[in-house]
Amino acid sequence: MGGDRTILALFLFGLAITAVMIIYPASHAIELSFQKAESFISEPEWVGLDNYVRVLSDMEFWDALRRGMVFSGWAIALQILLGIGFAVLLDANLPAQRVVRAITILPYLLPTLIVTLLVRWMLNDPIGIITIAFQNLGFGTVDWYGSPNLAMGMVILVSVWIWTPFVTISFLAGLQSVPESLYEAAKVDGASSWQRFWHITLPQLRPVLTVVILLRTIWMFNKFDIVWLLTRGGPLKATEHLPILAYRKAFESFDVGMGAAISTISFLILSVAVFIYFRLFPLDQKD
Amino acid sequence: MRQEFDVPLINRIALYAAMALAVAYSFFPIYWMLISSVRDPQVLYNSVDLLPGPYSIESYTTLLAATDFTIWFANSVQVALGTVVVTLILAVLISYAVTRLQIRGKTTIIGTMLYAYMFPPLLLAIPLYAIFVRLGLADTHMALIISHTTITLPLGVWLLWGFFKQLPPDVEEAAMVDGCSRLGAFFRVVLPLSLPGITTVAIFSFLLSWTDYTFALVMIDSDHKKTLPAGLETMVGQYELRDGELMAGSALIALPLLILFIFLNRYFIHGLAAGAVKR
């Protein structure tokens, strides 16, 4: 068919642009990680594995990796738990459910910057509304930005607030595809609502859960803006994870090679993790 | 679990209470942003009250007078629309061809695109910036549009691929029997039928571009070229803008998204769910 050739040509054109836009930068990042460059304009010099040796022998890197795992681990776990809870709640047949669903998605739409400004304002000392609420509840003044643990906790909780709706909506769609007959059969057999959740809902949601955990892990592990905007990696580097370390190296110390090496290593870690995950939980058992 | 309500009243009350809690949790911060932005700045630092007056639009007028907010707004519109157009054209081409043509290594192509999902944004931002510096594109909106497209394109191809797969090829074949060329069949039959998918991709590309901070921080240096989030952020320390003005700015950035959401919310929900459910 002659038309097929037109489509093929257009397709190759699109693919070429994609290659230039995505594959070339990614391979260029790997190339940069083998080079030494004092800035983005200077002529780079090939240094082999030097950047990698520097990164891996630097405690800063291992600390940042550990913090990144704490941050993304907690954020994902809480998002999943809260998301399942919300989905079950929103699946109940109540009036005004559509409006309620729409409202619970709103945090996902807000630009990260806005949320961080809002958090700053609500935690403002002395007049932020959360500050005052905590004082009235008898907790005194909480220094969210000053204490390492509290800063990490704050970054995690804010991430949970913003990104839980993704989990909620995915699960809600999953719940609605669970055949009603399964529940009815279980009811006839006298299963309690908890038993029905545990033995019907959760197993039916397994494929959704697999993908949601995968996507959330990838996105949370790479998340830069929320941490940067809330704490700049502080206090005392308590929230400095790999994306922030890479940014600091490349754009503050102008050690472009090191920044690229950190990003590449972080990408490799994620690739290995995803590979293992796919082995453990294959995606397309049927499809 | 859409069981009928033969459940006791007490459970029903608990359910309503939980729902009220979920709504408050999700909406209160947004309410607080809007309220703080229309409160009289004089009283903003004096008292906290859930329904606080007196109201005034002073925060808005100060914001617009003291900053380049309108310029950033125009920049954001330009970059977001550019990203949407580029993403749509490329995503439609690639995903349609992958579904309909007998190409070897189809799944490899989709797999590679999905792999791009995993790139840390900074892994792309660092080399992209280096490339843009060489090309003389650093500090331009074009650089930002290209950067955003590197993220939106894999997402768009994935979503549209799912959509085109579901359209039976018979529809186009029927049109082609009736004398349409493949291209004609594509424009007259396939595109209109896949409009919901295309709308979803457009919305998500817009959302990503409009809310992006990371790429804007890296790519744009000049203040007058900044997009909204990056521009407003430079104001946080510099001008000693008060929180009322920052809340006003935030409200103005959020408003277009909220309006889009009110009218197109089923596409939002579909797109969110498709990211996870469709495979």
Quick overview:
Chain A is mainly alpha-helical and 287 residues long. Chain A has twelve helices and two strands.
What's the arrangement of secondary structure elements?
The complex is a heterodimer of chains A (287) and B (279).
Chain A: H1 2-32, E1 35-36, E2 45-46, H2 50-56, H3 59-91, H4 97-109, H5 112-122, H6 129-136, H7 148-176, H8 180-188, H9 193-222, H10 225-231, H11 242-252, H12 256-280
Antiparallel strand pairs in A: 1-2
Helix pairs in contact in A: 2-12, 3-7, 3-9, 4-7, 5-10, 7-9, 7-10, 9-12, 11-12
Chain B: H1 9-37, H2 41-44, H3 58-66, H4 69-100, H5 106-116, H6 121-135, H7 141-166, H8 169-177, H9 182-193, H10 195-211, H11 214-219, H12 228-238, H13 243-277
Question: What do you see in this structure?
Answer:
Chain A has 287 residues and is mainly alpha-helical. Chain A contains twelve helices and two strands. Chain A has helices at residues 2-32, 50-56, 59-91, 97-109, 112-122, 129-136, 148-176, 180-188, 193-222, 225-231, 242-252, 256-280, and strands at residues 35-36, 45-46. In chain A, strand 1 and strand 2 form a beta hairpin. In chain A, helix 3 packs across helix 7 (148-176), helix 3 packs antiparallel against helix 9 (193-222) and helix 5 runs parallel beside helix 10 (225-231). Chain A is globular, with a radius of gyration of 24 Å. The two termini of chain A are 30 Å apart. By secondary structure, chain B is an all-alpha fold. Chain B has helices at 9-37, 41-44, 58-66, 69-100, 106-116, 121-135, 141-166, 169-177, 182-193, 195-211, 214-219, 228-238, 243-277. Chain B starts with 8 loop residues before the first helix and ends with a helix. Chains A and B meet through helix 1, helix 3, helix 4, helix 5 and helix 7 of A and helix 1, helix 4, helix 5, helix 6 and helix 7 of B.
